[in-house]
DNA sequence: CCTTTAATAGTCGCAGTGACTATTAAAGGG
DNA sequence: CCCTTTAATAGTCACTGCGACTATTAAAGG
C-alpha cells in the first residue's frame, strides 16, 4: 500500500456478481439473467453490475439485488460476501475484478428483467448449464458455502417467510443438502438451541394439507449454531 | 455484467493486503511494514501492493508475501483469501479496492523491508495499535478467521515446521485461542482424526528441554476436521 | 541415583444425537 | 358421525465424543 507513485498500475473495472438463491417447489432455485450482448450473448449469467464510484461493493450488491428481483424492500434479506474473482482473462473485453455475493430469499417472487438484463428467470440449481464468464464456478462456490453455513449458523431461516413451521424449516435443510432428516430429531435439535427459533404465541396453524396443523415459529436472535447441525455423512467424511 | 457500454464506470485501483501470522515465543505475531509516505506516513500497515495487469489477486498476494518476508520459497505456505474491502473512502487519495488475504508461517524468519516498504517487523498481535487505512479492521477480521478455522480444519499444522510434536501442535491452539487445553484429551482427539497428523516412523525425538522426548509427526492429508475441535467456551456461546 | 519434567495411557460420567416407537390432533371420505 | 389418513409431537435407548481427572513411563540434569 506504500508508494503509489513508484508503480504504474492499470485501472480495473470492479463489478459485483450475485448468486441469489430461493426455494421453490421443493427445489433450490437460482436467479439468472440472459445476456443481451457479446460476449456470451444469449447465454445465462448471474445478475450483477458495476460498482459505482461512491458506493462500497455491499451496497452495489444490494442495489442489484433489488433491481433484478423486483422486490421493493431488500433491506432485510440475507446478503453475504463470498469472495473475489480476479483472473485476468475472466472477461475477454477488459480487466474486470468481481466481488461475488450470495443472497437468500424466503419465497420466489417472479423475477423481472433488471434495467440492464434482457430477461431474468428463476432456474432450478440442478438444471443450470454453461453460464457466461466464470459464473459457473462462482455459482458452485456459492452453493457449497450456503450448504456449509446451514451447519453452523441459523441461516436456514433466511429461506423461510417471517412465520414458518418446523416442517418448513426442515425442508430447507433437506432441499439444500439433498438428504432426508429424521423429523423428531430435527425438532429436538432446533428447539434445544436457544435463540434459533421462537414460538409464535397465538398457537396458530398453517398446514395446507390434511394432517395435524403445526405450530408457527419465528427466527430467533441467535446467529450461530453451537453445537452445529451436521449434515448426514454420505460416506467419505468421518462422522 | 451486461451492457458495459451503457454505463460509465470509474476505474478502480485494486490492491492486495496481507495479514501474515506466525508464532514466536509463544505469542501470535503479525508482519507489519512502516509507511514511508503520506498518507499515514510513519504509521504501521499491513504489507500489500497493487495487483498487476496480468496476474490474479492470489498471485499478487503470494508475490508480496515473498517480497515482504524475504523467504525464497513461499509456494508451500498457507494463503487464503479473506474478503474484499471496498469502502469508497478507505484510501484518501483515490478509489482503492483491496482484496485481503491471510497467510500462516511456521516459524518467523526475520523480516526484511520489501522493495516498497521502509521497514518490516514482526509484531505481537496484542500490541498492535492504530494501523493505517482500515488495516486494523482487516487484521481483526483475519485473526478471527484464523481462530475459527482452527476449529474445523487442519490449519494448525500450517504454523508448525514440517515435523513437529503434539505438544507443539497443542501450543498452536493454545496460543491462537488464548486458552489452555488438556494434554491427554488433545492427544486423543488429534490421533483419532484420520489424516490430521501421521507419525514419523523413525520414532525420532526433539524436545529441547528436560522431559521425556516426544514423538514426531507430519501434517496428514486431511484438510477438514469432522467433528470439529471446538475451543473452550469462555461463557457466552452455548456449549 | 534421585528429582524434575513432560509425554503417554487409561478411567468415569455426561451431553448430544441417530435410530426408533408411540401418541395426538387434525382433515376428508364414506 | 365414524374411521382412515396424514403429519406433528412425545418419548426411549444405546452409542459416541469429549471434559475432567488419575496413573504411568521415559527421558534430562544435578
From TrEMBL, chains A, B:
InterPro entries xrefs: Nudix_hydrolase, NUDIX_hydrolase-like_dom_sf, NUDIX_hydrolase_CS, NUDIX_hydrolase_dom, WH-like_DNA-bd_sf, WH_DNA-bd_sf, WHD_NrtR
Pfam families recorded: NUDIX (PF00293), WHD_NrtR (PF21906)
Domain of life: Bacteria
A Gene Ontology molecular function term of the record: hydrolase activity
PROSITE patterns the record matches: NUDIX (PS51462), NUDIX_BOX (PS00893)
All copies of domain Nudix hydrolase, residue ranges: 11-146
Keywords (A to Z) from UniProt: Hydrolase
SUPFAM superfamilies: Nudix, Winged helix' DNA-binding domain
Family designation: Belongs to the Nudix hydrolase family.
Protein's UniProt name: NUDIX hydrolase
Taxonomic source organism: Streptomyces caelestis
Amino acid at each position: 500500500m506504500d508508494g503509489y507513485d513508484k508503480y504504474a498500475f492499470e485501472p480495473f473495472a470492479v463489478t459485483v456478481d450475485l448468486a441469489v438463491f430461493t426455494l421453490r417447489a421443493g427445489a433450490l432455485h437460482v436467479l439468472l439473467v440472459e445476456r443481451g450482448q457479446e460476449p456470451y450473448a444469449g447465454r445465462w449469467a448471474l445478475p450483477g453490475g458495476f460498482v459505482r464510484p461512491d458506493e462500497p461493493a455491499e451496497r452495489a450488491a444490494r442495489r442489484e439485488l433489488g433491481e433484478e428481483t423486483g422486490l421493493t424492500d431488500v433491506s432485510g434479506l440475507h446478503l453475504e460476501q463470498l469472495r473475489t474473482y480476479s483472473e485476468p482473462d475472466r472477461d475477454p473485453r477488459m480487466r474486470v475484478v468481481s466481488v461475488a455475493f450470495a443472497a437468500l430469499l424466503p419465497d420466489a417472487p417472479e423475477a423481472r428483467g433488471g434495467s440492464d438484463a434482457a430477461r431474468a428467470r428463476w432456474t432450478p440449481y440442478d438444471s443450470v448449464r454453461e453460464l457466461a464468464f466464470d459464473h459457473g464456478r462462482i455459482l458452485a462456490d456459492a452453493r457449497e458455502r450456503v450448504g456449509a453455513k446451514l451447519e453452523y449458523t441459523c441461516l436456514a431461516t433466511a429461506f423461510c417467510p417471517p412465520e414458518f413451521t418446523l416442517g418448513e424449516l426442515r425442508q430447507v435443510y433437506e432441499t439444500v443438502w439433498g438428504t432426508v432428516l429424521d423429523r423428531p430429531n430435527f425438532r429436538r435439535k432446533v428447539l434445544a438451541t436457544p435463540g434459533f427459533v421462537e414460538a409464535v404465541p397465538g398457537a396458530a396453524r398453517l398446514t395446507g394439507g390434511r394432517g395435524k396443523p403445526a405450530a408457527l415459529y419465528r427466527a430467533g436472535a441467535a446467529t450461530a449454531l453451537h453445537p452445529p447441525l451436521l449434515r448426514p455423512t454420505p460416506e467419505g467424511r468421518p462422522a
